[in-house]
Specification:
By secondary structure, the protein is mostly beta strands. It is built from no helices and 11 strands. A hairpin with a 5-residue loop joins strand 1 and strand 2.
Length: 121
Amino acid sequence: MDVINLSETTPFTTKDGSEIRELLASRNSAIRNQSLAEARIPRGGSTQEHYHPRTEEIYYILTGTARMRIETEIREVGPGDAIAIPPGQKHKIWNIGTEILVFLCCCAPEYEHNDTIITEV
């Protein structure tokens, strides 16, 4: 049984600029087809617009308020919201609240830097 506590993980910065702590993936568990990470974006921060050719994602907002853009659609999201991001769809999230934006990011297949294409300079 693989059980990983958030406090046992080391944060790293993804290619899009968000700080994540990978909870479960093939790198640390028996999981082979997806990954689960906690992402944090500071007040006033954002990811860079990007897309993933192969990976579909789900963002689940834990704390904070954000503006989410997928292609041309923009919505405000907050705690309890789950966001579906299909492969190939350009997306970006901004922290528009007064606290750190914290969300879970589920990726299938698992997150890889080489499957992240940055689309803004």
